[in-house]
Amino acid sequence: AAGDACGPAGSGPAAGPGREQPVLEPVLPAPAEEQNGTDGAKAPKVSCEERNTTGIDRFTLQILNVSQDLMEFLNPNSSDCTLVLFYTPWCRFSASLAPHFNSLPRAFPTLRFLALDASQHSSLSTRFGTVAVPNILLFQGAKPMARFNHTDRTLETLKDFIFNQTGIEAKSDVAVTEEDWEGPLPSILTKGIDWLLLFSVLFLAAFVMYATVRTESIRWLIPGQEHEHQE
């Protein structure tokens, strides 16, 4: 649906809320009868190996920084599942999704949840077809298995998506709390710097300053001015 995503994912704030684009067709399409929803019992499409939660006191989302590679967190030799969110802090749709996604690790403690800033990981965005954010992919090991395509991004629709894909039921007592609105994924829009515009302004200012200082030298570059100077 148009207007439910920000894009392109690899660009800066100039392509943010003012230039929203609809999410494109998923790279991993599913048959029509396998869309997100709770209508009827369906066999899970991804057989996930549930992780051992013994000794884990706090189930939370992990956000990758600019120096961390997603593939380092995905084990290609494992069948465990990870839900990965591609977002940008300047996209209002990413911000509205944040508290719901922050609550997911408590609802599914046996799964892993990661998030990364798509504008800082442009190569990954290209690799997995992330042309608009927010974009959610379900990985089994290091292989993307399904993409969340629901336009209503809430805790309930996310739980339905995970259940339909993996057969793993969410904990019923989990709800979005005030702490989920605070983090770890930011729910408040951040204003970034348009580096292209800043560079253009600095370049123009430098050129004007140079032209002002070197006015006499520039006059000699104009045809006919040398004769006027000699007279």
From TrEMBL:
Residues that span the membrane, as ranges: 195-213
InterPro entries, per the entry: Thioredoxin-like_sf (IPR036249), Thioredoxin_domain (IPR013766), TXNDC15 (IPR042418)
Keyword Repeat attached: no
CDD domains xref list: PDI_a_ERp44_like
UniProt entry tagged with the keyword 4Fe-4S: no
Keyword list, A-Z: Membrane, Transmembrane, Transmembrane helix
Name of the protein in question: TXD15 protein
The species this protein was found in: Orthonyx spaldingii
